[in-house]
Design a protein that fits this description.
single chain, 197 residues, 2 domains, 9 helices, globular, binds cobalt (II) ion
Length: 197
Amino acid sequence: MIGDLLARNRAWSDARKIERPDYFQRLANLQRPEYLWIGCSDSRVPANVITGLEPGEVFVHRNVANLIHPTDLNMLSVVEFAVHQLGVKHIIICGHYGCGGVRAAVSGSRLGLIDNWLQPIRDISRTTFNCQECDRWTDADLDRLCEESVKAQVTRLASTPTMQDAWRDKKDVAIHGWIYGLHDGLLSDLTCTVQAR
Ligand code: CO
């Protein structure tokens, strides 16, 4: 029931105020998160929940399959604001195993507009795996494709003028590639961090 959400929200708000009477006052006055999270829209991968971060601690952008498109004004505006105005120190591009977007990208069937969105994953599947159709993809292959896609998105974000300018302006910000396991709830660092280039 949609009405339940409002009731749960009231209970949550009340609980926060009991824990700390100035909880919302403090948050309303200042937003200074140290992290920008760029993750998949998948409902099972909520940034705050899986990192144990409170409201105010992570700036979030999510899209299908956590992709970086150099013409995505939404994503670029988020990154620019996070780096220049909020002064985030870490950008985390986080993928997840079992990503439906990654699977769809190499399924070989036409789904519509999303096929264009998922194009970067098909490009990686060609260059890194040399096969494109899902009937030849094992679960292990798809997991590796999820990992390779995250690494490629780190490189793509690092190449954007937005990040190049940030580093030229001596902004202390790094881009990290992580992946999340739906089965165990664990994050892994794919060790592809870019500090500046
Ligand atoms: Co996904």
